[in-house]
């Protein structure tokens, strides 16, 4: 028995999970969990990435000093859970895909929860166009995700204390 790790092991596993999610959406399993019970959806690459990240959990050994939503250099966002990714755990699963955001604008989504029996996981991913190598900016656009709770507390993407400017993917877990 051999034990292997690293990107050469994680990449094919994540690719396979993304293909299963893609097939699930394309064959109309969402949201009824039965084939052709919903609309056939052609997911974007950003949606597939967000679904995998949104359900990822870090191993317990990584959770000592880390916030749940904060990615790590050695483990990323954690290990994706396909059961949670597709809504089989009864908690619920909703998404928005292919939104186009005009310059200097923002979107507001209102989410009402009927229970606090599970964490609220919110993930945003986007594609950024390539920049000229001489440009000193990291990204063409810097989108940030924030959540304001009913009591007025703000949560920032990736557990950052302020705006997060170094990632095309941000996650919040409450």
Task: Give the helix/strand layout.
Blueprint (H helix, E strand, L loop, with lengths): L6 H20 L18 H10 L27 H4 L35 E5 L20 E3 L5 E3 L12 E5 L1
Antiparallel strand pairs: 1-4, 2-3
Write a structural description:
- With 174 residues, this protein is an alpha+beta fold.
- The protein is 20% helix and 9% strand.
- The protein has 3 helices and 4 strands, in the order αααββββ.
- It has helices at residues 7-26, 45-54, 82-85, and strands at residues 121-125, 146-148, 154-156, 169-173.
- The strands form 2 sheets. The chain has a two-stranded antiparallel sheet.
- β2 (146-148) and β3 form a beta hairpin.
- α1 crosses α2.
- The longest helix is centred in the N-terminal third of the chain and has 20 residues, at 7-26.
- The chain is globular and about 45 Å long.
- The N and C termini lie far apart (39 Å).
- The mean pLDDT is 83.
Descriptive key words:
globular; 4 strands; two-stranded antiparallel ribbon; 174 residues; two-stranded antiparallel sheet; alpha+beta
Helix-strand pattern, N to C?
HHHEEEE
The major sheet is characterized as:
2 strands, antiparallel
In terms of quaternary structure, the protein is: single chain
Mean pLDDT: 83
Strand arrangement within the widest β-sheet reads 1-4
Low-confidence stretches: none
Helical content class: 10-25%
Shape: globular
User: Structural class of the helix and strand makeup?
Assistant: alpha+beta
* Number of continuous helical runs: 3
How far is the first residue's CA from the last residue's CA? 39 Å
- How many beta-strand segments? 4
Please state the CA-atom Rg, rounded to the nearest Å. Answer: 17 Å
* β-strand amount: 5-15%
